[in-house]
Amino acid sequence: MTTATYDGKTDEFVIHTPEPKATKWWPGELGRLANYACIFAQLVIPDEDGDLNNYGVAPFMVQLRSLENHKHMPGVKTGDMGPKLGYHGKDNGWATFDQVRIPRDHMLQKFVQVDREGTFSIEGDVREMYTVMMYIRTGMIDKTRYFLARGLTIGLRYSVVRR
Asked: Which of these, 106, 43, 97, lies nearest to 74 by C-alpha position?
């Protein structure tokens, strides 16, 4: 999985995709259009002894492309997923990050926070972070019945008039 390691010396996070299977897939508008993305990465903070502590997934705002010429920022690679079945207008893409440095304040810190010393804290109920994701996924399942009904209607009508 993509990691975000806190560097207390520079007060920055280093976003890194360590291997191809950690590539971010399917985010909308990421392939060719987006200049910024909200990236979820494993939050890693070294302690005083240098041991790495993993605090789970946290959101980060990452600049993908230059605002002047739309070229990728150093260490960022993105691409389009290619043709899609039935949803051609969506620019779904993929992204990898190679030691991309972002300021500490680019971590979205409503529910989890990291101070300048690298101290991790949780604010409120972390289950709230997943509410929107779960709402969208259950909505997708709910909408599936309409598409299945349309396909079934087409199939039944065709079977009635077929010779």
From this structure: 97
